[in-house]
Amino acid sequence: MVRPIQFLKQQIDRYYKAALIVFVLFFACVAYIEHNILDFHPVRDNLSAFESRLVGFLDKGTDNRFGGMRKFYYTEEGYFGPDVVSVYTSSYLYTKQLNGDTDLDALDFLLSLQDKVGRTDGAFYYSRNLETGDIDERFLVGTNAKVIISLLQAYSITGDDKYLTSAKKSADFILTMQRDDGWFDSQLRKSKDGTLLRTKKVSLLYNGQVLRAFSQIYEISKDEKYYESAGKVASNLKERVNREGCLLGDDYRKPNPISSAWVVFSLREFSFSDGEYKDIYMNCADYLLELRKSEMKSSSQSRGSWPGVYSSSGASWMAEVYSFLYRDCVSVGERGCKRYVKPIIETLWWIQGHEREPGRLVWSHASDSYVRMDTLSHTIAALRALF
Q1: Which residue from 39, 83, 322, 371 has the least number of CB within 10 angstroms?
Q2: CA-to-CA distance for 330 and 338, rounded, in angstroms?
Q3: How far is CA 230 from CA 178, 227, 302, in A?
Q4: pLDDT (tens digit, 9 = 90+) per residue, 108-167?
Q5: In CATH, what number is assigned to the domain containing residue 70?
Q6: Does residue 197 sit within a domain?
Q7: Around 256, how many Cα atoms within 13 Å sit in the side-chain half-sphere?
Q8: Per-residue confidence band for 15, with pLDDT thresholds at 50, 70 and 90
């Protein structure tokens, strides 16, 4: 006859083993899902629906009269701001054209903002105000580079030479902004008396955009001046990484992941023509992943964000960069591609937490009164590169 105490001990042992098996199986399932999260239908369905909502609202941001993309949507008032912006239009077009589609009205709006005389011949103005009709007479290097990328996409899709011609004219303007040390100054702007004032500051974002644009226009035109110019920027970035490491800042920002991601993404583009830069950008991409991982363990910041990245727009850029890195990795059959997936998914879910109404991603939890429309473009680009 089994004694009560012995019986109780047997039952505890039995249920303990059963609970242990359930515990192990549960965490094995969690690990499997995390490792194969892109194959998990609820995740794909969630992100697919998220993309559809973003696309629906992004399309509403285009202006019916001029065809360009507005910069802000104000959530409390429920209306789009009056500024139609060339770089935001380019981001919208870039996202749309990833699927082989385009928007001719938006392209016409961009061409309408291209200057045709004097020192700024070929340069794109920053924006037009719908209420006053006034043009913001700034010529930002980064804006022009972003427009070039969208025009080259349009040329590839439509075969219309006017887009390539326009892109070359803008690139030739950008060349005049390059300094002797290889960096590009940020902008020219017209003063009230018509004098052109040059901002002599270095932005990694702008220089990275130029490196991307010049890498692409060289591949199409084979004009060495663009390759040589891009090579100077790439060499500067390489030198800075070798000297300072992968967490970089510039004249506008302290060292941060967003600026560093621009270094990664632009060197990725240039490496298609010059393979020596691949190790640099890949090492920096992995460094940023490790930085994110360690910061998430040691700080109380929201799961899914990046160190020092507090806005949905910044997070959307990080998601876009790593989604394209993942796509590159898979396309050439490299190992270790899944190291990108979890950070991308977590970042996308963190961004999704900023959605107040369908498709409306507020800029941050602290500043939820407006939507920056380029956030939607970057997030859609990330989703399309990922899937």
Answers
A1: 39
A2: 9
A3: 10, 5, 37
A4: 999 999 999 899 999 999 999 999 999 999 999 999 999 999 999 999 999 999 999 999
A5: 1.50.10.10
A6: yes
A7: 19
A8: confident
**Cα(88)–Cα(97) distance, rounded to whole angstroms?**
14
CA distance 65 to 338: 45
CB 354 within 8 A of CB 312: yes
- At residue 197, what are phi and psi to the nearest 5 degrees? -110, 130
Is 181 within the bounds of a domain?
yes
Q: What is the arrangement of strands in the sheet containing 69-70, beginning at the earlier edge strand?
A: 69-70, 83-85, 127-129, 135-136
Burial call 271-283: b when 16+ CB within 10 Å, e when fewer: bebeeebeebbbe
In a domain, 141, yes or no: yes
Residue 172's H or E segment, with its range, is helix 161-175
Reading the block at residue 152, the tokens are 């080259």
Position 94: which residue type? Y
Number of folded domains in the chain? 1
In a domain, residue 356? The reply is: no
Query: If DSSP codes are grouped into helix, strand and coil, which group holds residue 140?
Result: strand
Q: What is the mean pLDDT of residues 80-84?
A: 96
What's 248's DSSP letter?
Answer: -
Which tokens hold the place of 106?
């938006």
Do residues 214 and 229 touch, judged by C-beta distance below 8 A? yes
Is-contact 102 157, C-beta < 8 A? Answer: yes
DSSP string, 362-375: BS-SS--SEEEHHH
Tokens of 75: 């959530």
pLDDT tens digits along 43-71: 899 999 999 999 999 999 999 888 999 99
Q: Which domain holds residue 140?
A: 66-201
